[in-house]
Amino acid sequence: MMYSRIAGTGRYLPERVLTNQDLEKIVDTTDEWIRERTGIERRHIAAPGETTVDLAEKAARQAMDAAGVTAADIDFIVVGTTTPDVIFPNCGCLLQERLGIRGCPAFSVEAACSGFIYALAVADRFVAAGTARCALVIGAETLSRITDWNDRSTCVIFGDGAGAVILKPSAEPGLLSCHLGADGTYNDLLFTPYGTSRRPEPGMPEASYIQMKGNEVFKVAVKTLERLVEETVTANGIDSSAIDWLIPHQANLRIIEATAKRLGMPMERVILTLRDQGNTSAASVPMALDTAVRDGRIKRGDLLLMEAFGGGFTWGACLARY
Ligand code: COA
């Protein structure tokens, strides 16, 4: 049996940092409120003109270096993003051009905060089947572009960034299982009102910012993630104590704590980046993975549980031997 295996990781955060204190000057909020309700202290914001693909390219190059591969090796590109540079070409194609690659499939997956897990699950199938031999999988976002900086209930939460992994075939495990799901009946709890095809009424503002019923999102997220991690553990016939690291989507510290508690995992074995990065949607899981790989916490052979939940609602988990 062939597996796909993470051969290298990378991440990139834009230079500009926006702290909770900075936000106190923009909207009616306090550092204390943001920290207590979310666990976030600061987030990175893309510079004017800096796009999702700009961030993705930097993360991709780092992951390629870490995996010891060159652009010529890559034969599959998939980008999870909710904030593409343009409607088309998709971010995968734009990234392919930046990297000087031609011919391989390149596309984006639109699954909000679960975008990276969805992208990883797709790439895993291609690599494990032998169809792709070196897949570049990205989660990248410039959420600051769809954030209403006058809305204190959302602007304190989100940030920009990109994370990347290279997947290669391996006789050793590898990605063990991926579990994806969605429930579109919740489309009114976390959404943007307009896009390409659905337009505002004539005379209404053109801007299409993130709208969120935070409290209700919170409740469904906790319940869904508890069910999801249990499903993943059960499907693999393991006890959750076998998991070395939980790498959750960085939405809210209280959501992450609830998931860790359900798994019986101490917070020391949970990778947390949201304090310094906020919620970066599809970028959060690969950036957290890369952070812990580079600081030496995650070692070869460790068992990782990655999970995410986001607008749609969508959700996904991957159990992987690093
Ligand atoms: N600063 C100060 N007060 C704020 C605020 C802010 N930034 N944002 C909202 N408030 C106020 C509200 O207006 C409300 O005031 P009221 O009681 O006078 O009406 C009060 O705080 C409580 O709001 P509520 O939305 O019930 O707070 P909460 O405890 O649910 O926390 C979130 C809000 C957004 C932090 C929380 O619901 C959350 O994290 N939800 C999940 C969001 C998420 O993960 N989204 C992404 C999924 S991928």
Primary descriptors:
single chain, alpha/beta, 5-stranded mixed β-sheet, 4-stranded mixed β-sheet, 13 strands, binds coenzyme A
Task: Give an overview of the whole structure.
The protein has 322 residues and is α/β, with parallel strands linked by helices. The chain has ten helices and 13 strands. The strands form four sheets. Strands 1-7-6-4-5 form a five-stranded mixed beta sheet, with helices on both faces. Strands 8-13-12-11 form a four-stranded mixed beta sheet, with helices on both faces. It is globular. Bound molecules: coenzyme A. Residues 29, 33-34, 37-38, 113, 152-153, 156, 212, 214-215, 217-218, 221, 251-252, 255, 279, 309-310 line the site of coenzyme A. Residues 29, 33-34, 37-38, 113, 152-153, 156, 212, 214-215, 217-218, 221, 251-252, 255, 279, 309-310 line the site of coenzyme A (COA).
